[in-house]
Amino acid sequence: MITRLLSYGAGEGIAKGLNIALIILLPLIISPENYGVVALAVALEQILLNVFLFAQSTAVLRNYDRFRRYGNTFFRSLELAHTRFSIILFVIGCLIMLALYGYISDLASLFLILCAAPFLARLQMLQTLQRVRDLVAGYLKYRLLYQVVKFFLVLCLAVIPSLEAVSYSLGTLSSAIFTLLLFRDWGVRENKVRENKRLSKKMFLFSVPLAAQMVMNSLYSVADRYVLLYMSNKVDVAIYTFSYSIGTTLLFIANIFVIVYLPKVYREKNGLEKSIRILDGMLIRLFVLMVIAGVIVNFIIYPHMLSYYEPIYARGERVLSIAVLAVILKTFYLYGLYKLTLFRTLESIPLISAVVLSFNLCANIILIPRFGLEGAAYATLLSEALGCTLILVRSSQVCRLKAVRACE
After folding, report:
1. CA–CA separation, 128 vs 63, rounded Å?
2. Exposure of 101 by Cβ count < 10 A (0-12 exposed, 13-18 middle, 19+ buried)?
3. What's the mean pLDDT in 130-144?
4. CA-based angle 247:294:357, to the nearest 5?
5. Given this model, what pLDDT does residue 103 score?
6. Any coiled-coil ranges, and where (predicted)?
7. How would DSSP label each residue in 20-43?
8. Domain range summary for the chain, segments of one domain joined by +
């Protein structure tokens, strides 16, 4: 069990590390204006991946044991239903792109991301199906091959001046298709296996609230880039994305920490009281780790890095400091989320996400004209503070109502 968790954690760490490294290395190769185009493509990728995936991977993780008895029919039903859904979404996306033609510059980069989205969602589903069957090697081959190929391909495309703006989008699309062609295996060897439409419908309906939650989260994480573009320009988007990406490397540390530590919290044999004590201990350790890492990134790593980049990126120094504070606040949000998960009361999470997303959009619109780049960062910091407050208040209410003894 521990070996599997460490393998998953190592795989996720390498994959996320390569993705972060790619975003940080690209400004060394391409112009700030084209890096702004890449930043918008990355933001759109996050949104479209969640839309096309429609929380099906989460649905599989939560329901695989329940539907295991269906065997290959389960996988075949997922494949066919997801393919139909992706085709419909892709057609809608193409119509939207066609309507925007002539109104948005650099539409080619965004269109390539739209083309990549169904393949990225399929790849994510394949990784999930490997996980539920405890096929660690299979999971890692999909996860790592795609990320390694993408990393080197995007960098190679970026050195070609005519492809700077589309380097990320084209590299993402090509890497996803290459990985799928090389390792195509849904666990169904025979096409004669029929779809169970009732099963497909159950999985789809289960995914609706989860998908809404994930799409809202992705919109929240990228809204600042698009509002900043609307109220400023692509160069400001580039500076903001560069600084904020360095600040959010702390989330990379948090994700690895949680992957390794969280299974201890959710062990059924613990009992609720012990699980909460373990969760409290995890929060303290994670908070201390994040503060130390934040100080190192803000005062040592970032100033040293700036000497290698164009001077214009130094304008994002304050953005980095604010981003570090926002990420540290995120640890308290995660604590509240995991606590609600322990009590199996997640119904309020979509509402909290909707409130925070709405607040974030309003804050960006108000603060960016007044503070510029820093305004977008302040909007995110205030939104994180609001999200933390709401989820901690809710988790405390649940504690008092459902587990008073366990929380004393």
Report:
1. 12
2. exposed
3. 81
4. 45
5. 77
6. none
7. HHHHHHGGGTS-HHHHHHHHHHHH
8. 1-231, 235-408
